[in-house]
Amino acid sequence: MAVTRIDVEAVRLPSGTLELRYRTTGIISDLHIPPRADPARADELWRHTCFEAFIRGPQGAAYYELNFSPSTEWAAYRFSGYRSGMSNAQIGPPRTKLKSDGMEFELRTALELGRLTDLPSDAPWHLGVSAVVEEKNGQISYWALEHPSGRADFHHPDCFAHTLAATVPP
After folding, report:
1. pLDDT at position 170
2. 3-164: what CATH class?
3. Which pLDDT does position 121 carry in this prediction?
4. Residue 82's CB: how many other CB atoms inside 10 A?
5. Contacts (Cβ under 8 Å, ≥6 apart) of 59
């Protein structure tokens, strides 16, 4: 396996901005990294190397799926319940930066989530972070902070394993 480790940092700012940093360690030259494209919405990014975040508020079944491709394409969806009621989330494009060397690939992104009513600013958010990594040989691995038992399922409630505390403006 080309990847030996993936580290993720998540920061929730008082403005409602979510900043994410995915750092992938391993033999980066063995990974299939999609070529850089215009930073536009695109579907099915998870079919290739893609970094993801799943976020839900403290109540209700609604949650958001955010996808960030090394191509700088992105996607954001709202689900009304577990894998149901999918629609495009009404947010603007993320600000994404990429950095790579022979042993590390880093994707940093920031996006404004403050207007999403399912994610109140005065309550904690539950976060699941994950990645799909495709190697040049076609092998795909699935990475997550937590996995449910059985097959990888990033939408599963067990994956929302990290809590981002409510932010208080300065």
Report:
1. 59
2. mainly beta
3. 87
4. 12
5. none
Q: What is the largest CA-CA distance in the chain?
A: 49
Instruction: Say if residues 49 and 22 touch (Cβ distance below 8 Å).
Output: no
Sequence ranges of the domains in the chain: 3-164
Q: Are 42 and 34 in contact (CB under 8 A)?
A: no
Instruction: Say if residues 10 and 163 touch (Cβ distance below 8 Å).
Output: no
Q: Look at the chain and count its residues.
A: 170
- Residue 116: CB atoms within 10 Å: 20
pLDDT over 70 percentage in the chain:
98
Tens digit of each residue's pLDDT (9 = 90 or more) over 1-44: 899 999 999 999 988 999 999 999 999 999 999 999 999 999 99
Q: DSSP string covering 84-150, please? A: BS-EE---PPPEEEEEE-SSEEEEEEEEE-TT-TTS-TTS-EEEEEEEEEEBTTS-EEEEESS--SS
